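ok so I'm stuck.
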Amino acid sequence: MHEWLIFTSLLLGSGSTYVYGYCDATYQEGWGKEECVNFVKNTLALAMSRDGSSGGVIRMCVITEEGVERLFIPGDQLPRFWEGKEVIGQDSATKSTYEAVPIDVEV
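replied:
not stuck anymore, here's the structure
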């Protein structure tokens, strides 16, 4: 996954000002798909927890040469930063007990 693609999608929304420090402290080059998906999920959940204008679920697309995979994380399965769980750093940022679920989308 390309660095510019991750940051373009993460750092332009209304909650983006809440996550610049998290992105700077956490992102590392060379991540595979799973690490990138967890990073995006954690970053969006953090922004959503601080921003009253953000929605309550995450809809994410992973775009590769093989195609597009659409993922959905319901609000009750979002990472919860305010519960005292450590999320900063590679070990905790790339591991999550909440799994993204592929969804079918009618075109």
